[in-house]
Specification:
The structure holds two protein chains of two kinds. Chain A is of the alpha+beta class. Chain A is built from 15 helices and eleven strands. In chain A, the strands form two sheets. In chain A, strands 1-2-6-3-5-4 form a six-stranded mixed β-sheet, sandwiched between helices. The longest helix of chain A has 19 residues. Chain B is globular, with a radius of gyration of 22 Å. Classes of the chains: A alpha+beta, B alpha+beta.
Chain lengths: ~400, ~400
Amino acid sequence: MNFEHRQLDNGLTIIGEVNPNAQSTAVGFFVRTGARDETPEVNGVSHFLEHMLFKGTNALSALEVNNAFDRLGAKFNAFTSEENTVFYAAVLPEYLMDVSSLWMQLMRPSLRDDDFKIEKNVILEEIAMYKDLPQFEVMDQARALHFGSHPCGHSVLGTNESIASLTADQMREYFSRRYAPNNITLACCGNFDFENLCQLAKQHCSGWKTMDTVRKTEDTAGTFQSKHVTNINLVRQHICLLSPAVSMQNPRRYAASLLGQIIGDDSGSRYYWALTEPALAEVASMQCESMDGTGVFYSYICCDPDKTSRVLSTVQELFAELCKNGITEAELEAARNKTLSALTIKCEQPMGRLVSLGFNWVYNQQYRSVKEDVDVVHGVTLDDISNLIEQLNPGKFTMLSLGPKTS
Amino acid sequence: MMTQKTDIYQLKNGMTLLGERLEHVLSASFQFLLPAGASLLPEGCCGASTVIADWLFRGAGQRSSRELIQALDRLGIHRNASPSAYHLSLSASLEAGNLSEALDLYADMILRPQLTAEQFELSRQLAVSELQGLDDNPRQKAMILLYENFYPDPFGRPAVGKLDELKGLLFKRTAEIARNIFNPSEVIFSICGNYDFEAVKDQIEKTFDRPSGKGLSAQPPVMKGKNYRHFPTEGAQVHIGIMTPAPLAVSDAYYEMAAAVSILSGSMSSRLFTEVREKRGLCYAVGASYKTMKDHAGIACYAGTTPDKAQQTLDVILDQFRILKNGISDDEIQRAKVGLKTSLIMQSESTYARSSGIAADHFLLGRIRTLDEIREKIEALSVDSVQECLRRHPFEDFTVVTLGPKTVNL
């Protein structure tokens, strides 16, 4: 595998990891924009805009776009988070140039009023769908509680109200500021020719105008508040805990990710032995999410409403014990091995590699081979983990509990 | 297409070993299909497979629950244990270098599980909790109810269990089921990735050289036919499940039907996505897929929508199912073909997908299809062949389930 990198005059970055042995190729546009870049008046616009890109250009209708992707057999989609909007497709190598050319055209969408109106209904249905999924709803509410006034607490979907009042003009204005070439990375993985891809990008994307794209990236400790939200229609208690972790720019994010796994992997972790194995909770997981300039550990626990207080006191004891005695070498070794096998499994397919490749560049303007990632994971020591526990104190958290219980 | 090497071997005791080697990966995935699925359980034990799937990991051979989990984790094994209608499937993906140690651990779990009463109670409680948790996941619950109402009994029995039966499940009876699931002539082991088949074969031959347990036997099916059931809940959406009969995987019509489903719902240019979501904005989630069990098959469709749009959503979907036989375009068949081919090649890159794929082939068809054979079948699809298939197997009878605040009319 070899890495390639190029930048067009207008700031569009093109990166590639070429693997001639791959059977397929994956390509993606990584736009550095998401809910944290929105004002309250346009909350949800990044995600809505992601949908609108599929509605076509001045030359292509929505149906023509979908037909074109499907004629190439593309496995294509997009996702929006608090800070990224990513459009991707995996195809057989012979279709890579066609599918890339299609994405390049779609990155300058026409954002028609009629399409905007119909798609608004789809977004409102998506919001309704997540309202029926408390495991997502609790995350959304907990993030808002934890981040307080920090922009990372913004909801990705927005609310019924913010979406209902959003206008197509507001979306166009947001698009012109955020989808500037200097705010976008084009990444490609698998079996392909990098020079050809660059030529194609030059042809389609050179006319895109550079803009000032700023983002506030200050860190935040979080609010450490606790809140119970009652919904008598629910059957289980859904609990979300958030505490500070490290940013994507921080080299200690590998250690933080291992710590998250040691505490909250779905098997063999501290949560597993304290909560799942003794059947106190049917789900108990913790992950480290590193973001731009900040980061959080988040835990999700699902249990019998009557066991809520026992679950929460068990969690408190677990963190007290962790802070007092740290972790063992065996725990670290298991977490390392699970992470390493996840890496090798992900590497089987170009699509599995694309997101890591793209995000390493978006956050750190850096290429990291799988080998480098493996070495860093191997190099994490018990001391690294102890220092993190001491510094981050994961037992101090924001808590939101959603369920039928009134307190 | 990569060169493909498939190994098949039958142990003296009747157990089947299947393998497919991939040179360019560092990983391997394997799967044990044990004949202990939901349809094979004795009356009154619905959910026992789910309990057993958890219980097997709570101590085996000389290792306690904690020691077993630690041993699996030390090897970095990504694992799954899940029951279907026919099988309890234990699958694992890992770095290929750890394969031999991992197989020894799985041999312990399958042949020498400790099955203590104390651990049984915890596994049972977890299964009860998970079942209750389904009420907070109406989309998944709607589909489980759909399968239960579509498939003839016992094939639609929910693998997650039924509340009264799980609550009344007894330790002794469940332990007896668990001890009898190693019925070698019905067990399939499959592996894909960077491994040495001879070494795997020798190891399995040695570790699994065991006589048969009694096994579980299927009961004669009770047919259900088309029906509509509504399950009232308070929620933001009505969750609609629709299912209609289709040819079996072994049937000549299989590839034609797969193409028809692809035209209906294979991607964003498909009929359902275009008519329900793109043109009318009725749903965020709408889609259909081809579900093939050994002796029963159907096309299952899901849509979730706010209550006022539920009736229109159902009407548009059923209409799309019914009019498919009236004509499909050449462009649609071309898109379906390239979509099916691409999925096939991409699956061939994933060790997990291929190890599951060859095991499913062996069970459903009694043989493993090569990737070339599948490709040829896909290439041969035409507008005429798909339309002929739809004329012979029209979508007419629908089983419908709704979950939510509003009913619909059929």
